Amino acid sequence: MALLLRDVTIGFTGRRADVRVEGRRLVAVEPPGLPADGAEVVDGNGGTLLPGLVDAHAHLLQWASSRQRVSLAGATSAAHAAELIAAAGPKPGELLQGAGFHAALWPDRPHRTLLDHVLPDQPVALFSNDLHTLWLSSAAMRMMNVDHPTGVFIEDECMALTAALPSPSTDITDRWVLAATEAAAARGITTIADYEYTDTIADWRRRGTPATRIRCVIAKFLLDETIERGLRTGAPAGDLLTVGPLKIFMDGSLNTRTAYCHDHYPDGTYHGELLEPLDQLLPVLRKAVDNGIGLALHAIGDRANTLALDAFDHLGVGGRIEHAQLLDPADVPRFAALGVVAGVQPAHQPDDRDAADRHWAGRTDRAYAFGSLHRAGATLEFGSDAPVATLDPWEAISAAVTRTDDDRPGWHPEQSLPLAVAVAASTGGRGTSVAAGDPADLVLAGRDLTGLPPSELRDLPIQATVLDGRLTHRA
């Protein structure tokens, strides 16, 4: 079935056109007036037509699951978080789950006894907003057959326990995940890189057809199996599926205070956690590279980013650094020089500004340094890290442009990006324009973005999303 996108504005050019799609390609971009000739017509009314948007970093099962959990985003203390989860419970015989808490600014610390007090004998699992902390009640620890003095697990222990928690049947969670891709398509997304810590390829082959393309990222524990299966980054893995890069954690996170930094945190001599010493990491990375598997290194603290860039330099290959939240100024030009993509999540910046001001005091001029990276020639690709932030590219674009999401002035506005640059960082390298012959992965925004007030970006209406030549969303 052909499509005719009538009276659209092409990117940021200001040019109005009709765009015809046949099969998987744009076949015509002409002045308004093209005949329908049997095509399905979508009236653009001057809205902006862009290449389909890409979320370059999300955790789709966790995002889909978080939509079912109790929100703790408004918790102002550990005690308050316990009160919020208590108000939602109890659920006898079930695991009660909450998500989205930010502990970095709390006056108290999470502890199992807080949960035990408000919900005796109720298994409770609470996930931090950055997914690097899992807080369990005593009953939940008994359910999981683990013991811990506080019930608060971070980094590797957190990841392992998160994967082992009881969950609904795969039939149910698969429906949740497919519905999440439909919600993503409704915001203009045509591709998502799934960074879930599972066998993403097997999961997606089981689930059926998503509403977006999926890049199936490889967890470290599956590297050898991936090599044995003959899979290489960029290769097809199924309908709308491709093999993604290998994900490796260099350090932790800001809100857990485990991001690995050159300078210590305010409470002493602690610099965060290096999760993988470079001499132990390099043989793993070399094995991946030698077998055609690309690299995506999680690095948040400036020292972790230095070491990640050192690894790429040593290997003589490019790749990705995911997050790149705090950078040594000397490392900024190394991204472009080494061919390393900065996979960043701009919506984290307004969420984390207060935690950064406290824990990275005196260094925040080089935190979430999107402007510096862009000016140095680095390739920026935006993601959400959902469920850490909402799986909505316009949240990221708005944060990159305005550096705020409330009534406060932009935080370090010198690190903001022009709108066209922010949009280009959300299209996976396709820029902001379209032309005949392009792949038919497209998004039609309901407004002309030229001159659009930044305050309207977050709620930008999406008229249509086209994936591989077919509509996946129509307003």
Automatic annotation (TrEMBL):
SUPFAM superfamilies: Composite domain of metallo-dependent hydrolases, Metallo-dependent hydrolases. Its EC number is 3.5.-.-. One of its GO terms (molecular function) is hydrolase activity. Gene3D superfamilies: 3.10.310.70, Metal-dependent hydrolases (3.20.20.140), Urease, subunit C, domain 1 (2.30.40.10). Pfam families: Amidohydro_3. This is Amidohydrolase. Keywords: Hydrolase. InterPro entries: Amidohydro_3, Metal-dep_hydrolase_composite, Metal_Hydrolase. Residues 40-472 form the Amidohydrolase domain. It comes from the Bacteria.
